[in-house]
Amino acid sequence: MNSVNTTITSEVTQPDEVAVPVQESKPAETIIEEGKTVGKPYSDDPKFKLRDVEVFYGDAPAIKKISLDIGRNEVIAFIGPSGCGKSTFLRCLNRMNDSIDICRVKGSLQLDDHDIYDPKRDVVELRARVGMVFQKPNPFPKSIYDNVAYGPRIHGLANRKSDLDEIVENSLRKAGLWEEVKDRLDANATGMSGGQQQRLCIARAIAVSPEVVLMDEPCSALDPIATAKVEELIAELSESYTIVIVTHSMQQAARVSHRTAYFHLGHLVEVNETNKVFTSPEHELTESYITGRFG
Amino acid sequence: MTDQRSQAEIVRQSLKRRYRKERRFRAYGIMAIAIALGALLILFTDIIGKGYTGFVKTTITMDVQLDGEMMYLDDPTDERQIKMADFVEPLVQALIKEIPGATEDDRNQVRELINPYASVTLRDALKANPDWLGTTQTMTFLTHTDVDVYVKHAGDDAYSIKLNDQQKTWVDELLERDVIETSFNDVFFSGGDSRDPSKAGILGAIVGSLLTMFVTLILSFPIGVAAAIYLEEFAPQNKFTDFIEVNINNLAAVPSIIFGLLGLAVFINLFGMPRSVPVVGGLVLTLMTLPTIIISSRAAIKSVPPSIREAAEGIGASKMQVVLHHVLPLAMPGMLTGSIIGMAQALGETAPLLLIGMVAFIVDVPDGFFDSATVLPVQVFLWAGSPELAFIERASAAIMVLLAFLISMNALAIWMRKRLERRW
Question: Which residues contact A33 (CB under 8 A, 6 or more apart)?
């Protein structure tokens, strides 16, 4: 790989919600090789094959030449300090960045060997295969039933009411919510607790039977008990889905993920098996981060 | 230690000043609200004080002898005879009988107490009941407007009483014996405009207003909402859409009389549509209301949280589905509120309608969108400019009716906002 040495001297500005705080205490002159990732970024039979991905907000680069494979039925966690580009990178995987006008994506992103950013690619079909759960629980202001049934309805997955009922029940069961809400499916979803809302959002995402579920800090608005429930759920879901989770909590990454990817200022610094990242990180930036020297 | 104390002292000093400032600011605020409320109070007392008599009518009840010979009528079913017959004479005779001391010589003075339209009422009654001929019936008629004014405003210098002393004595006597009575003015709500104040009603203007508002609503709401959705959700962000946005805002600030001129030039002169009709009025008011609706609808769409959009997009909803299933239902309360306020503005609009001829004197209640009509504020304008003082109280009464419509529309807007507003 033709890599260029770059010195990080200034922070990356990006108009996304993730603002970049300057890391005062970090080793200022640490050198990252662009496009070079230590650890094990590649796998043999990947679900996602991402090569030299670059993302720009206007002219400002937010992601710099990242290459990564995401395996089948794998749980991979993205960690890193605020503003490092992990959310931006995640949102490339189902083209949620499309709605941001000034956002441009370069490089090759493939899902099952098909290009995600192919202009002919139908984004609706892509998103039906790659579901997403957001940072803040965002149920529709409708009934619990309608929230879960919305996806199957618009995609025409159920022709009869009984089929739809079954999908709703199964999704809610998988999300561990069925016992709590089975008697009040007609109640408005906005009246639920934060943890329930987030599990409902997960149920809603898996109701369309996606192959991949992207989770953007799904527990950051939840209390520890609700977080534990969601983490349990992630462990169960990993049997049938590929899960990509962005998290600020290193403990969470350690608990739920198989592999962990460390991002720093738009670079993918290190990817490895989770316990390896947390016990013997190869890169000094990763070590600084997980030992709490910054971030 | 001393340093600290002095610092605390300084803070306490400045606190006093800050609180004083705060109190002063609060006083200004209360004053401003008091002025606004005071102005409103003056407006309402003035209008209600002047206008409540507009809701009262003065009637006279008497035994009318329907003598065929006196009326030159022997067959009430004969149209020609009915037209030629004398319906004033029985009324005059009946009233002379009611007034002690009045004789045949006073007939002209007696006649001046009866409303000119009373004979029409009598004719219609006889037409409907031909067998009444030759009998005596107890019937109630409107008094002459001069009597009406005298009964209501006897001691008021603002009104000139046109009755002479003899007539005043008679009216006082009849009032005492309850031959002349005042009651709720149903005529005001059941008829159109008239040259005679006692006979003038507001129903024509109300129906005209409703027809005009209907045209305005069915045109401006869908067009406004569609424009807002397109501009907010689908239009590309470029110089051209910026230009459109600036011009929509400009349009909202154009004086309404300009829209009237536009309507006159385009709808009436160019397209050859009839004058004074609710359709043209509605079209002109649509042009006037559109910017308001577009602006408020865009604000409502903007206020839909992006998380809802993201949620729907994340499941794979297409742009159209996101808009129709999520954005539109959530923005609807705001859109409706904006539209109702726009409609209330249009309801109170006078100037553009003057230019398209809705200021004509129209007696009949309009029975369609292409029938000549006037609207409530224009009716107020017409009556307020009349030389007859009796029209002034009608104008005030009409203002009250108009205000009632406006207040109920605004209340509806508030209620809808509270009712339909969803929390997320």
Answer: A3, A4, A5, A6
What angle (nearest 5°) sits at the alpha carbon of residue B197, between those of residues B194 and B199?
Answer: 60
Q: What is the pLDDT of residue B294?
A: 95
How many residues comprise chain B? 424
Q: Report residue A222's pLDDT band, with 50, 70 and 90 as the boundaries.
A: confident
SS3 A245: strand
What residues of chain B score a pLDDT lower than 70? Answer: 1-4, 422-424
What are B182-207's pLDDT values in tens digits? 999 999 999 899 988 888 999 999 99
| Exposed e or buried b per residue across B39-61, where buried means at least 16 C-beta atoms within 10 angstroms of its C-beta | eeeeeeeebeebbebbbbbbbbe
- Chain centroid to Cα A216, Å, comes to 5
Gap between the Cα atoms of A109 and A67, Å rounded: 9
B305: left (phi over 0), alpha (psi -120 to 50) or beta: beta
Are the Cβ atoms of B330 and A201 closer than 8 angstroms? no
d(CA B238, CA B241): 6
User: Which residues in chain A are contacts of B315 at CB distance < 8 A?
Assistant: 127-128, 131, 150-151, 154, 204-205, 208
Residue B310 and residue A96: Cβ atoms within 8 Å? Answer: yes
Q: What is the pLDDT of residue B322?
A: 92
Q: Is it the case that residue A30 has pLDDT exceeding 90?
A: no
Confidence bin at A224 (pLDDT 50/70/90): confident
- The fold of the B203-420 domain, in CATH, is MetI-like fold (1.10.3720)
Q: What is the mean pLDDT of residues A154-163?
A: 88
What is the residue extent of each domain of chain A?
Answer: 33-138+210-290
Taking CB atoms and an 8 Å cutoff, what residues of chain B touch A124?
Answer: 316-318
State whether residue A15 sits within 8 Å of chain B by CB.
Answer: no
Report CB contact under 8 Å: B314, A208: no
Average pLDDT over residues A48-71: 90
Q: pLDDT by residue (tens digit) across A167-176?
A: 999 999 888 8
Residue A214 CB-half CA count within 13 A: 25
- Rounded Cα–Cα distance for residues A141 and A190 (Å): 6
ipTM of the complex: 0.79
Architecture in CATH of A33-138+210-290? 3-Layer(aba) Sandwich (3.40)
Residues of chain B with CATH 1.10.3720.10: 203-420
pTM of the complete model? 0.80
Quick one: A189 exposed, middle or buried, by C-beta within 10 A (0-12, 13-18, 19+)? buried
